[in-house]
Amino acid sequence: MTSPWQPRRDGTPASAQPDEWVGPVDSAHPAPSAGHAVEPFTVVITRPAGQSDTLATLLRARALAPLDFPLIAIAPVRDGAPLREALGALDRYALVVFVSPNAIDRAFDCYSAISSIWPHALPIGVVGPASVAALARHGVTAPDHRVISPAGTADEEPARFDSESLYAALEKTLGENAFAGKRVLIVRGDGGREWLADRLREAGAEVETVAAYRRIVPEPPIGAWTAVHRLLEGAPHAWLVTSSEGVRNLDELAREHLTAGEIVELRHAHLVAPHPRIAETARSLGFDRITVSGAGDERIVDTLLGLALPRSSSQPAASVSPDGSSAAQSAAQPVQNTPASPPAQSRMTDQNDSSHVPNSGATPASAVTQSAAASSSTSSASASARPASSYASAPPPTPSGSSARRSGAGSAILWLVVVLIAAGAGAGGYALNRKLDRMDAALAQRQQAADQQTAALRARADQAVTSAQQIDKQMSQLEGKIADAQTSQQALAQQYADLAKNRDDWTLAEVGQMLSSASEQLQLTGNTQLALFALQSADTRLAASDSPQALAVRKAIAQDTDKLKAAPSTDLAGLAIKLDTALAAIDTLPLAGEALVAHTKPEAATPADVAKTAAATGQPRWKAWLDTFASGIGQQIASLVQVRRIDNADAMLASPDQGYFVRENVKLRLLSARLSLLSRNETTLKSDLAAADAALARYFDSASKETQNVRDLLKQVDAGSAAVALPTLDESLKAIQQYKSRG
């Protein structure tokens, strides 16, 4: 594994820079030697604020520099009543699904006010390991609680942690028909995918969804933007995007805060997404370097480390072999290659077999090692063969007695030594050939991997060339559009110059049209506020002109403005309501001679005491009694007869059919008066009101309370109609007309 450092962006080699290594050092990634400059690989974390501490710690432990740049902010929902109501009635549900750790934290914060213990028998469904950890923080863990999530371990987990995987896990754990007729609660943020809810409804479940939080677009601080600008200038970095909405927010914020060149650099920056759906969203927005890491901080860190490592693969000083030594050290290590030292040959062969060989640049060094090993084996074999041939060609001495026996024994021992040496040389050569075969196989595999990487690089280069051609084509199109825009701009400038010559004429014509429309509206609707606004707008337009005619028109406008401000306000709606009330009461008014007469009966005062009356008046008792009797008879007769005066005799001659037409004629008069009121025709209004009042006085019972009320309403409308007349805009219109006639 290589070390995550590389030379500076200014092009100076690592060996020529005096800066010291400032990153952390661990066993997996040794620090470079003094004299190698370092620019740490920066990881831009876009998770919500406060949710990336663990990931940042893991990144720092791997010598990667984290940068917090939140693209989503988690905020409380505006109305938490539905969530509280749902959590307060958990016994109604057969399953509760939390779509994210944020949903779990918000829901349990709300649930803490209801109870401190989650129901043990209620199953919980979550999407991924982060949600399982969030449940554990709130005391909900297996086996005390039933937590269902997509299956997976630290070494082997499913490729996707999403709604589809969760539904498969729910069916596997609870059964395919476990949702029929059951109620399921889904706790999520505002909005989101409806796939899981729709699938549960298709399975027969009654699904309720409540929002536990809402997502908003944050505004990163200036310091974060400064760091992003520096990274987009060419510093090594990658972006970690953990949601599709975060990718969309990144695109939106980039359009607001970045230049066109920086947006292009951002489109070509490395993006790491834990889910393929996020990668698809990023690709649809124009990002072209996307890596899917899988769920979990460890997988994300490994993916980011893989992006950081290729930066230093071209530096030979940083290459590390499996035994802990660098490739440069292995190449510089002396090798003894003499026929008399087979152990040295073995050590040399082992070292070359275990040294780190880069993809393509290590092939010559390996070839040199193979040739050295071959020459070593050849020289060893020749060295062991020469003694044998020399002893075989020497003439044997003549045997004689004991010396002959000694000579025979020595010859046998010599031959045994020769045989052993030959056998050892053969075994060494065979072992050396086996190691050379293994080295050839390893080199072939590495060469194949290097060819694959070369093909991938060529494909990327072809894509880059294609992209460059497309960019050139787009640039040509843009240049053509810019030329067209410049031509159009010149034409508009010429037209504006032509129009500017008659600017005063255009301004006065526009003001005249404006005042004419305002005058018509004033006469039709009586809206003085609209007329005032039109006069003020016209005065503002004329204020920019230095023409004497414009000054005269402004004086006339000022006079009309003062008249409108001094005009009395009229409650037209109130007067119209009074006329409507009078209209509604006409059908119930009694005509003259039709007033109901109460049933008559003789009435007389209680007889007075005759003795007291005689004593008081000094008259005889018989005379006092006679006066009292006569007075009682007169009172009884008067109570039987009523006398009323009718000034119009023809009113008594009106038949019931004629009374209907009298009422209809009065209502027509009142309707005409109402139209005259709304159209501000004061003459017709007063004429209709007078005719209606005369008909009421002539044909209707004047003693009736209802008749008197209707006549009072008509008098109030007549009195209020005096203020109906409104001023006109004649002065302003006359000034405009005079200017036009002079022109």
Automatic annotation (TrEMBL):
<dbReference type="GO" id="GO:0032259">
    <property type="term" value="P:methylation"/>
</dbReference>
<keyword id="KW-1133">Transmembrane helix</keyword>
<feature type="domain" description="Tetrapyrrole biosynthesis uroporphyrinogen III synthase">
    <location>
        <begin position="53"/>
        <end position="293"/>
    </location>
</feature>
<dbReference type="InterPro" id="IPR007470">
    <property type="entry name" value="HemX"/>
</dbReference>
<dbReference type="Pfam" id="PF02602">
    <property type="entry name" value="HEM4"/>
</dbReference>
<dbReference type="GO" id="GO:0033014">
    <property type="term" value="P:tetrapyrrole biosynthetic process"/>
</dbReference>
<feature type="transmembrane region" description="Helical">
    <location>
        <begin position="412"/>
        <end position="432"/>
    </location>
</feature>
<dbReference type="GO" id="GO:0008168">
    <property type="term" value="F:methyltransferase activity"/>
</dbReference>
<feature type="compositionally biased region" description="Polar residues">
    <location>
        <begin position="313"/>
        <end position="324"/>
    </location>
</feature>
<feature type="coiled-coil region">
    <location>
        <begin position="432"/>
        <end position="495"/>
    </location>
</feature>
<keyword id="KW-0175">Coiled coil</keyword>
<dbReference type="InterPro" id="IPR003754">
    <property type="entry name" value="4pyrrol_synth_uPrphyn_synth"/>
</dbReference>
<keyword id="KW-0472">Membrane</keyword>
<keyword id="KW-0489">Methyltransferase</keyword>
<feature type="region of interest" description="Disordered">
    <location>
        <begin position="1"/>
        <end position="33"/>
    </location>
</feature>
<keyword id="KW-0808">Transferase</keyword>
<dbReference type="Pfam" id="PF04375">
    <property type="entry name" value="HemX"/>
</dbReference>
<dbReference type="InterPro" id="IPR036108">
    <property type="entry name" value="4pyrrol_syn_uPrphyn_synt_sf"/>
</dbReference>
<feature type="region of interest" description="Disordered">
    <location>
        <begin position="313"/>
        <end position="406"/>
    </location>
</feature>
<dbReference type="GO" id="GO:0004852">
    <property type="term" value="F:uroporphyrinogen-III synthase activity"/>
</dbReference>
<protein>
    <submittedName>
        <fullName>Uroporphyrinogen III methyltransferase/synthase</fullName>
    </submittedName>
</protein>
<feature type="compositionally biased region" description="Low complexity">
    <location>
        <begin position="362"/>
        <end position="393"/>
    </location>
</feature>
<keyword id="KW-0812">Transmembrane</keyword>
<feature type="compositionally biased region" description="Polar residues">
    <location>
        <begin position="334"/>
        <end position="361"/>
    </location>
</feature>
